[in-house]
Design a protein that fits this description.
This protein is an all-alpha fold and 175 residues long. It contains 5 helices and no strands.
Length: 175
C-alpha cells in the first residue's frame, strides 16, 4: 500500500508541475505577443492601385542602377564614391517623382503613399548631406534621420514596400 500511495503522490506532483509549466509557457507566450513581438504592419493599402503601379517603376529603376554599374561598386576615393552615389540618387529622385504621379487623389492610399514618398525625400536629403561630405574628401559614414521609435527612416521605407508587395521599392542595397 505504501508503494501505491508513493506512486500516486509522485503522479500528482508531476501533474502539478506539468500544469504549472504549461500555464507558465502560456503566460510567457502572451507576454511575448503583447509586449515584445513587433506589431503587425498597419500600412497595408486596401486600395492596391498604387502598389500595383509602383512596383514596375521601382523594378525598372533597380535594373537601371544595375545596368549603369552603380550597385556594389568600389570607389578609390571619397569623391569617387560621392560621384557614384550622386548618379544613383539622381535615378532614385526620378523614381520618386514618377511614383508621386501614381498616388491616388484621395483616401487612405493617398495619405499613406504620400507619407512614404515624403520619407523617400528625407532619405534622399540625408544622402545628399552624406555625398557633400564625400565630395569634400571626408570618407564619411552614411547617417540617416532616425524616426521617433529610434529606427532609421529606411526601415519604415522598406517595411511599407514589403507590406505592400513592392519589393523593388525598398532602399537599394549596395549604392
Amino acid at each position: 500500500m505504501n508503494g501505491e500511495a508513493s506512486a500516486t503522490s509522485t503522479r500528482a506532483r508531476v501533474t502539478r508541475i506539468a500544469i504549472v509549466v504549461g500555464l507558465g509557457l502560456f503566460a510567457a507566450g502572451w507576454v511575448y505577443v503583447l509586449f515584445i513581438a513587433p506589431p503587425a504592419p498597419t500600412d497595408f493599402l486596401k486600395d492596391r492601385s498604387f502598389p500595383t503601379a509602383a512596383e514596375p517603376v521601382c523594378a525598372a529603376t533597380v535594373t537601371s542602377l544595375q545596368q549603369a554599374n552603380l550597385v556594389n561598386q568600389q570607389a578609390s576615393s571619397p569623391q569617387q564614391r560621392g560621384d557614384l552615389a550622386d548618379r544613383a540618387d539622381d535615378q532614385l529622385t526620378d523614381m520618386v517623382a514618377r511614383l508621386r504621379t501614381l498616388v491616388p487623389a484621395t483616401g487612405e492610399a493617398h495619405d499613406a503613399a504620400t507619407a512614404w514618398l515624403n520619407d523617400w525625400d528625407q532619405w534622399l536629403h540625408d544622402r545628399a548631406a552624406w555625398t557633400a561630405q564625400l565630395h569634400a574628401g571626408t570618407d564619411a559614414q552614411f547617417f540617416e534621420k532616425q524616426r521617433a521609435n529610434g529606427e532609421p527612416s529606411s526601415t519604415a521605407l522598406n517595411a511599407f514596400a514589403v507590406t505592400n508587395d513592392m519589393g523593388s521599392c525598398q532602399t537599394p542595397a549596395g549604392i
